Amino acid sequence: MEDHHQPVHIAIIMDGNGRWASDRGLPRVQGHERGAESVREVTRDCARRGLGHLTLYAFSSENWRRPREETEMLMGLLEHYLVSERKEIMENQVQFSGIGRLNELPERVQKELNKTTEMSRSNTGLHLRLALNYGSRGEIRDAVVRLARQLSEGKLQEDDVTEESVRDFLYDPGMPDPDLLIRTAGEYRLSNFLLWQASYAEIWVTPTLWPDFGKEDLDEAIRAYSSRERRYGGIAPRSSP
Length: 241
Known about the structure:
Helix content: 40-55%
Shape: globular
Largest sheet: 6 strands, parallel
Structural class: alpha/beta
Number of domains: 1
Oligomer: single chain
Number of helices: 8
Order of helices and strands: EHHEHHEHEHHEEH
Strand order of the largest sheet: 3-4-2-1-5-6
Strand content: 5-15%
């Protein structure tokens, strides 16, 4: 039977900015700038739909391997976004935060990130998270280290370690697991994104490059999600004769 409910939490691997620019003979920076416009459009649409959470994979810990001029450009674009989108964030009651090894970002970016997070803390609408300097294996490693420290200090006992208590040591313990994980640009891999949290996420892949992703693509993804049965390892109930 078709289920028409919408997801509470959508996570997106935003892929294809560079390819979008290359296909048009443009500098890569223009692909990232156009991708930032898609972030605005999708965030606005998710807020309008009344979704609870949107998590966007904005900059992975592996992205530092890119040429220095590109990473510096991306940090500059991020800093600009954090400032320029504040009005939009506040008008749409969006609560903003970041997840990842945020303390390793350039100080100027940390400053604007903290300011946007603090000023939107009391907002009551969509919770938008940007995964920045984020890698899921790194997140799990950091969680294990913090958990082991509490065990060694006697603040936790072995019997206290459950799946839920492990969650307490992740970057954002209050973040619900994503219901729907979207990947653009036709790639079929998780790329070290939310490996713990996305264990039961429905995955939807589109060939659309991120700068071209908009409301119609989000509609299609949510329709696909609504048509799937969420069993969590169980079996579907038998329909009545």
